[in-house]
Write a structure and sequence with these properties.
Helix content: 10-25%
Shape: globular
CATH architecture of the largest domain: 3-Layer(aba) Sandwich
CATH class of the largest domain: Alpha Beta
Structural class: alpha/beta
CATH topology of the largest domain: Pyruvate-ferredoxin Oxidoreductase, domain 3
Number of strands: 11
Distance between the termini: 54 Å
Strand content: 15-25%
Number of domains: 2
Order of helices and strands: EHEEEHEEHHHHEEHEEHEH
CATH superfamily of the largest domain: Pyruvate-ferredoxin oxidoreductase, PFOR, domain III
Largest sheet: 7 strands, mixed
Number of helices: 9
Radius of gyration: 22 Å
Strand order of the largest sheet: 2-3-1-4-5-6-7
Length: 336
């Protein structure tokens, strides 16, 4: 039973809505996080709020954006437009930082929270406003440790970053969301939420840009001067240029060639043909040998690991730079 609302929370005095954009891929819980946050804001904190998400095919690994718009109780929300100039951006997967649209529109005094372990700061973040706040949290690592999901961790970090978001009420809404369908997840989600609220880094001197970042749409896409040339695919999908690295959720298949018998079972089950084969070395007993994995095309499904009869393909946690260091290019002549 939901407790009665005790008081109305005061938003930052900006004269406009407070807007948050979650940037994610399917399977990490961004849509659920937006629902939980908006529910807590409206039913428990006395705010006006709206949440909706944008996504394509409903499958793990596809791009997902969830939008939360908050306002005072006497300020009606009469728009359902996407959040283009957010006060906060929460990035659920660090690979999404390579897409300029992920950071688009962040206000000069805005906050970026992104999921990544400790390590070098991605160079893409230099495009942020110089005055923006940047927070890094190892949401996936915490989620694995606590047997939860990254969304619980990132909600905790978001509440720690903005004092007007009542952490207790957001946690109550999170627990209520899962109590009926998955009661076993309530305790682990609470641990993950509390860890996210404390185990984060505030990064200094990251951005270099001045002022607000431009929104991803600065002019009409379909005007007679701005529409794409017919017959051109500006963002190709299933081609040699496709990059599936953003679909991985923390794990990589890693090859131990000394254990490999080059049987090809892994290649039979791989849905993305990311395994690289080559001619055997002189004197070898195999005609073709497995050379490695091109992680550009690997979405981390780990079917190859599950099917390997010798244990030559094992599962390892993905750390910054690991995929680039182990990658064997499938198309060496292509740049990237």
């Amino acid at each position: 039973m939901m407790e009665p609302m005790s008081h109305t929370v005061s938003l930052p005095d900006t004269g406009r809505f407070f807007e948050i954009r979650f940037e994610s891929i399917g399977g990490l819980g961004a849509h659920a996080a937006g629902q939980v946050l908006a529910t807590a804001a409206v039913l428990r904190m006395g705010l006006n709020g709206a949440n909706f998400s944008s996504y394509g095919s409903e499958k793990k690994g596809s791009l997902v954006r969830s939008f939360v718009r908050l306002g005072p109780p006497d300020y009606p929300i009469r728009t359902s437009a996407p959040v283009e100039m957010p006060d906060a951006i929460v990035v659920f997967h660090a690979a999404l930082l390579r897409n300029p649209a992920t950071l688009a529109g962040l206000r000069k005094d805005g906050t970026l929270i992104y999921n990544a372990p400790q390590g070098p700061v991605p160079r893409e973040l230099s495009a942020l406003p110089r005055t923006a706040r940047v927070i890094r949290v190892d949401a996936l690592g915490i989620a694995v440790k606590e047997q939860s999901r990254p969304n619980a961790v990132l909600l905790g970090t978001l509440c720690a970053a903005f004092s007007f978001l009542d952490a207790g009420k957001v946690l109550d809404a999170l627990s209520e969301e899962f109590a009926g369908r998955h009661p076993e997840a309530v305790a682990s989600n609470e641990r993950a939420f509390r860890s996210g609220a404390t185990e984060f880094e505030l990064l200094a001197s990251v951005g270099r840009a001045e002022g607000d970042l431009p929104a991803s749409r600065t002019e009409p896409v379909w005007g007679y001067e701005t529409q794409p040339i017919g017959g051109i695919i500006p963002e190709p999908g299933n081609t040699a240029w496709n990059d599936l690295s953003a679909s991985r959720t923390g794990w990589l298949p890693v090859l131990d060639r000394e254990k490999c018998i080059h049987c090809g079972v892994c290649d039979l089950v791989c849905p993305d043909l990311c395994l690289v084969w080559g001619d055997a070395e002189d004197g070898g007993k195999f005609e073709r040998e497995l050379m490695g994995v091109d992680y550009r095309y690997c979405k981390g499904c780990l079917r190859c690991v599950e099917s390997c009869p010798t244990g030559a393909l094992g599962k390892e946690a993905e750390t910054p730079g690991l995929a680039d260091g182990l990658r064997v290019p499938l198309f060496p002549d292509l740049i990237g």
